[in-house]
# Entry
Amino acid sequence: MSKPLPYPGAPAQSDTRSVLAIPAFRKLWNSMAFSSFGDWLGLLATTALAQELSGGNYQKANFAIAGVFIVRLLPAVFLGPIAGVIADRFDRRRLMIVTDILRFALYLSIPLVGNYLWLYTATVLVEAVTLFWSPAKEASVPNLVPKSKLESANQVSLLAAYGTAPIAALMFSLLALLSTAITNVLPSRFASTASIALYIDAVSFLYTAFIVFGLKEIPKGRADKKAESENIGKSLMEGFKFVSGSKIIRGLIFGMLGAFFAAGAVIGLARTFVGDLQAGDAAYGVLFASVFTGLALGISFGPKVFSQFSRRRLFGAALAISSFFLVLLAVVTNLVLAILITVLLGAFAGISWVTGFTMLGLEVEDDVRGRTFAFVQSLIRISLVGVLAVSPIIAAGIGKHTFKFSTLQVTYNGAAFTMFFAGIIGMVVGIVSYRQMRDRPTVSLWSDILAAFRGDLGGITGVTHAGIFISFEGGEGAGKSTQTKLLKEYLESIGETVILTREPGGTPLGNQLRQILLANETGVISPRSEALIYAADRAHHVFSLIKPALERGEVVITDRYLDSSIAYQGAGRVLEPAEVARISRWATESLVPTVTIIVDLPAEIGLARLQSRDRLEAEPLAFHDRVRQEFLSLANTDPERYFVVDGTQSVEVIHEAIIERVSQIALLKINKAKKK
# Structure
């Protein structure tokens, strides 16, 4: 199994063109695309054929469709761990050719035999054969592209795997529309929509065998060791040990399974659901395509559209919204509305999916990332078997029910009831995941939504880092400099490596800018120019000093940071604080402190402590009052990051309060190090 990507969305267009310009990889990619197309078309055709063979019996049709999903997924659960080991012993190119020819023969035989026993038998054999094709393909990719292009190659491979699902669904719908004309030429047994789709499916695998036959660049050597060669039980146990110790990862995996639960319920019940809406195979293909179209939209555009939101918040919220649309889908009786709702459902499920995998790449430490991904993928396989198999069985057990309300009569069948309760469960999972993982529990989601529309969230939901980043803010004369030195001494006494810096002036360039900004001789600087100069100092400060120290896992304490610009140049200079914040977020690449300590002191008391005043300190009292109120306002918007301490207390009392707050962060870092 190739290394999981932290963001499995669409690659940049230039990267796509670059990797597909490699002739050998382009041929292999074509075989992947046709193979994936065949897999999706085969899924549609076999489920449709299962319903055809039921003879119109509702319970029998649901049980038959459940059987198809079970036999498609069970080989991956049981044979997956050893398929890679066996495939590793054969010539990859020959193995891929042989498996494609076998899939061609098996799919061709299904409509010719035309009974349940062979449908299930052939489906099991097809899935078993595919398990040998996949590791051979995965092992071949690194031999066909340079290492620098491997990530792009993996991304376009994902496009081949999932992007062909809507195409297969469209093909199935077109075949359904043409099936009536075809039955006038051929016997109905061999000319149904499902039968014709299976014939096309078979031909697609014959074509992929032809492509790989001409791909001489695939080496004959053995493949590298893959994660598939590990026993699923071992992967589950190793992954469980890590997952059980992390609240964030527990909520993440719990929610990811919920995302697959919601989408899986739609896929598993789609065929009987459209039948309940008095629609046929064409509608089934469209509804199936709608799920994957939505998933593609969510994966491709969701992270960009919702870039202002914390990933942890977005993940649970998107999952809950996706499940809400599943509940809504269950109660509609109009096919057009059902298709629209399914696209929205898929989109939010896709956002959860890509956000979840992104967070796994960011939250999980490198030395346990592989086994955690193996754990997640094993769970996903097992959960899909459960959802796709159990949901049609539950629908069959519920059966058809008609409700009469005065003159109104409504019929809801087992598929609708099952999707309704699956949506309720998914919403509960999403809400629990959201509550378990939200990074600012005292701030409401609605506040975040409003802030996102104003463009204010970027500074709150910035990038993560290995070290501890502490900023001190407050008005003039509040005693920040004294407290930064005392905190540095304390942290060094407990073994931390600490860098103490300031703004402006934390770098040689910063010292020159500090002279310009604070010297009385400088005179008047326009408020916008002043904000931009501070941002320039901050950008260089982060790039040259703060970020490297944090990447080394050190503690950085800075006397003033971006909040000072928001307060001084925003509120003090009567500019728009949100605009000033956006400038600083861009300058710092959204790097925010782990905690921001605000030493709060009435402006008149702080100014009275000064023996001399620089250009900013010399501003009138009203200016400094606005600055103080802005600091307090910022603290109210994000109490998880800000810690306000009363600056009128003694130095010792303030220091003790700061130590208590910072020690909570240091303890988290120590616990994290122990888990590693």
Summary: The beta strands are 400-405, 408-413, 468-474, 498-502, 555-559, 595-600, 642-646. The longest strand covers residues 468-474.
